[in-house]
Amino acid sequence: MKVLMFTWEFPPLISGGLGTACYGIVKGLLKQGVEVDLVLPTREEVYFPMRTESDVDSLPVKFLSPAKEIEFTNTVFKTAREKFEFVGVSSVPESYISMKEISTFYEYFENFTERYDYKSKVPFREVLNNIMGSENIFEKVKEFTLRAQRYAQSLEYDIIHAHDWLTYPAGIIAKTVSGKKLVCHIHATEFDRAGGAGDIRIHNIEYSGMTDADAVIAVSRYTAEMVISRYLIDTAKISVVHNAHNIDIREFENKKRLFKDPVVLFLGRITLQKGPDYFLEAARIILEKYPKVRFVMAGAGDMEKKIIHKSAKYRLKNRFLFTGFLNSTHVAEMFSNSDIYVLSSVSEPFGIAPLEAMSYSLATIISKQSGVAEVIQNAIKVDFWDVKLLSDHIIELIEKPDYRKKLGAAGRHEVELIKWDKACTEIIDVYTKTVKR
Amino acid sequence: MINLVFYFQVHQPYRIKNFSVLDIGKGKDIFDDELNGEVMRKVANKCYLPANKLLLELIDKYEGRFRIAYSITGTAIEQFRKYCPEVLYSFRDLAKTNCVEFIGETYYHSLSFLYDKEEFLDQVKMHRETIKKEFGFSPITFRNTELIYQDTLSDYIWEEEGYKVILTEGVDRILDWRSPLYAYKDKNKNMMMLLKFYSLSDDIAFRFSNKGWVEYPLTVDKFVKWIRDLNLIEKGKKNLFLNLFMDYETFGEHQWEETGIFEFMRALPGKALKSKQIEFSWPSDALHITNYQPESISFPEPVSWADMERDLSAWRENDMQYNALETFYEILARVKASKNPELLEIARKLSTSDHFYYMSTKYFQDGDVHKYFSPYGSPETGYRNFMNAVTDLEERI
Asked: Can you name the CATH fold of B2-296?
C-alpha cells in the first residue's frame, strides 16, 4: 500500500506537536510495509518519498519537475541543512499557533533572544523576519492547495491522508483529481486552539474536509465527540486512533534537585487552551496551607504576562516561578527537576506532555478534558475547572511522598508500553477498510 | 544672594543576568559581569571621564569659587574599581581640590529605608566608611535613594553620627505656597534641609536637547538670567539656595556630547560668577550661610524625584514590584540570620532600587525613561529574572 500524505509539519524541518505525531505515524507505517509520499509546505515543488524506516530521519527529496530534479541531483550539498534550504522549508511550527498567537509570536521570540537584543536589534529583526516569512497563513494554505493537483496527478498512491485543517483543501483537490479515497486526521480542532469558537474560515475548512473525507481519524474519543457534536460528521466514518510518543525513555540515576521543596510543574504554551489560570488558582489554595512548595510555570505564550501579574497580585512570593521559553534540552532538565506534573488544559485533543512527564517518573495529574486521559491509568484525572479537587490531589501527593513515588513509577512503566506500532496498525486498518468501501 | 548648589548622583547597579529557573541552585553568577562591564566602560568614556576632567578644570580655573557635590553609590565605586579604575582616580583628584563635597546615602542605593531600618542604617554606615576610605571625606549631608524622603528619615539619620543636612525633592504638594529656594528644617528641627528646584534641574537633565521645548536651545545666558530673576523674590537679603540636583550621567550619557551639554557646563560658572548675586555652594554650606531661622517642613507621605508623580510609584506601584519587594526583604532577613557574608553581599546587591524600577509598567508602553534604563525587554522579564535570582539566593541559605 502507498499513501499520499499532506502535512504541515515534520521534524526537524518544522517541528511542533503535529510534526512529532506525523513522525511517529510515518515511521510506524514504514515499519509495517506501507510506503508514504510526504508533501510539506516547501518553497519548491518537492515531496519526500519515504520507503524505509530510516527515511524519516534522512528525508529523501524528489522534485515534481523532471528538469528541477536533474538540477537537484547534480547539486552537491555539504550539509543536510543546505539541502533543505534549497528546497525551502522553515523551522517554525505554525499549525498549532492560533491566529491570535501569531501576533504575540514576535514578543515570544524577543523574550528569548533578549540578551542579543540589547546589543543590536537589527540583525535579530532580520533573522526573525526570515523565519516568520508571511504572517498570513491563509496565503500559504492557498499556495499549498493550488499545488495539490500536480502532486495528485504526478504521483502514484492508493489513498490520501491529510493532517489538520491546513492540508484538508489539498486533500480534497487530490481526491477530486485522482478519485482516490481521502482520510482526514484530526489532531486539534479550532475549538481546542481558540478555547471556544475561533476563526470562522478555519471552522469551515475543517467542516468541509471532514465532510468530504471518506474516513476521519480522531486522536481521542474526546476529539471524536467534538467532531460529532460540533461538526455533525457521520459517526460511521470516524475512527479513534490514540497518539503514541517518540519519547526516548532513559534510565536516570538520582534526581537532580533545583529546590529543596517539592516542585509542581506546568509545562506547555501559556495560552487559554492549556488552562494556566486554573493551575495558578490551585497554587494559591495550596500555598496558603503549605508555603513550602514550589510551583513552576514553564513555557511562553500569550497569557504569560497575565499570569505573572496575577501570581504577584496573589503575593505568592517566590513560590510561583516562571521559566520563559524553554528549548528541548531545558524541557528535559525541567522535567527531571520536578515532582508533580499538572496538565490543566481546558481542551486537549490528545496531549503528549503528560506522557513525557510520566516518562520522567513524575506523579501526574491530567485534565479530564484531554485525549490522553483515555489512554492512561496511572495518573490522577480531574476536571480542569475543579480547582479545589486539583489542589486536594496535589496536597495529597505532597503529604505522601511514597504514594507520589509509586504513582510516578507506575506511570513511567505504563508510558513505556504505549507504542506507535499499535496506532499504525489501527491506521492501516482504516486505510484498508476505506479503500475497499 | 543666590547659591547654586550642584549635586550630581553617580550610580550604577549590578544588573542581573537572564536568570532562568534552571539556573537556580547551580552556583551560577547572578549578575551580568559582561553587561555591567560594558555599560560601565561606555558610561565612563561618554560621561564620567570627560565630565570629571571638565569639572576639575573649572575648579582650578575659579580657584575655589566653583564648588560641587557628588553622591557616589557603593555599587558604582565597586564597579569603577573592577571595570574602570581610572574613573575612581579621577574622582580622587576631584576630592583633593577640597572644592567637592561628598554626600552620604545607602551603599547599595536601596529602598531599605522603607522596609528594614536596621539594614538601612547598616548600608548608610557602609557607605560612610567607603567614602571616608576612598576620598578622605566624612559626609555631613545625606540623601536617600532617589531622594526618597519622609519625616521618619530625618529621625533615623539624626541618630547617625555626623549628618546635619538632608536633601530631597521640592515637591509642590508638600511646599504648597512655599519656595524651594529657602533652607528648611525637618519636622523635628534636627536637620537642615535643601529641596531640589526641579524645573531648572530638569531643564538641564531632561529638556536640554529637546527640540520640541519652547526654550530650546538652552543657552548659558538664558539660564543665568532665569537664575537672577529668581533672586527677585528675596528683598530681605536672605541667602537663597538654588538646588540643581541631577544624575551625573546627564553629561554625555542622557544628553550626548553632541547636544553641547559639556560646553554649557563649561561656560556656566564664568557667566554666573560675573553676576554679583550668584555664588556656588555645597549643600553643607547651608549650615553656615543660612542667615535666618529656617522654617520646619513636614513630609507625612514619602516623596522622591522619580517620574511625574514624585512619589514611590516608580518602584512600588504594580503587583510585581510589591511581591518582589516583600519576598526580597523576607529572604534578606533569613540571609542575615544565616550569618553568611558571601550571601549577604549578593542579597545586598539585589536590594538596589533599579531592579524594582525595571519592573515598572507605568510608562513602558510609551518607551519612556523606564524602558531607556532597563536592560530587559519587558518589565515581566525583569521580574522573572529577579524572582529567580532571589530564589537562587534562598536555596543557598
From this structure: 7-stranded beta/alpha barrel (3.20.110)
Residues making up chain B, counted from first to last:
397
Q: Does B376 touch chain A (CB under 8 A)?
A: yes
pLDDT digits (tens, 9 = 90+) for A157-213: 999 999 999 999 999 999 999 999 999 999 999 998 887 888 888 999 999 999 999
State yes or no: pLDDT of A85 exceeds 80.
Answer: no
CA of A405 vs chain B CAs: smallest distance (Å) = 23
Residues of chain A contacting residue B377, judged by C-beta atoms under 8 Å apart: 110-111, 114, 117
Which helix (DSSP H) or strand (DSSP E) does residue B372 occupy? helix B369-373
B121 touches chain A (CB under 8 A): no
Of the residues B134, B146, B253, B279, only one is catalytic, namely B146
d(CA B64, nearest CA chain A) in Å: 43
Q: What is the pLDDT of residues A63-84, one digit of tens each?
A: 988 888 888 888 888 777 777 7
Q: What is the ipTM of this complex?
A: 0.89
Residue ranges covered by each domain of chain A: 2-93+135-244+421-436, 99-132, 263-416
Count interface pairs A-B at CB distance under 8 A.
Answer: 88
Mutation for testing the A interface, residue in B19, B21, B378 having most A CBs under 10 Å = B21
Does A312 sit within 8 Å of B318, measured CB to CB?
yes
Which of A110, A264, A266, A317 has the most B C-beta neighbours within 10 Å, making it the best mutation to test the interface with B?
A317
Of the candidates A257, A304, A317, the beta carbon closest to that of B323 is on: A317
Please give the Cα distance from A379 to A354 (Å, whole number).
9
C-alpha cell at B147: 531622594
Reply yes or no: is the peptide bond before residue A12 cis, omega within 30 of 0: yes
Contact indicator for B49, B262 with CB cutoff of 8 Å: no
Is A307 in CB contact (< 8 Å) with chain B?
Answer: no
Nearest to A334 among B22, B25, B35 (CB): B22
- Cell numbers 498512491 correspond to what residue? A157
CATH 2.60.40.10 for the A263-416 domain, yes or no? no
Tell me whether the CATH fold assigned to A2-93+135-244+421-436 matches the one assigned to A263-416: yes
* CA–CA gap between residue A65 and residue A44 (Å, rounded): 10
Any idea which residue has 506537536 for its cell? A17
Using CA atoms, how far apart are residues A372 and B32, in angstroms rounded to an integer?
42
Domain segments of chain B as ranges: 2-296, 319-396
- Residue-level pLDDT at A105: 47
Amino acid identity of B104? G
Q: Is B258 a catalytic residue?
A: no
Task: Locate A42 and state its grid cell.
Answer: 516547501
pLDDT in tens, B106-145: 999 999 999 999 999 999 999 999 999 999 999 999 999 9
Question: According to the model, what pLDDT value does residue B289 have?
Answer: 94
CA nearest A297 in B: which residue? B21
Q: Assign domain A2-93+135-244+421-436 to its CATH architecture.
A: 3-Layer(aba) Sandwich (3.40)
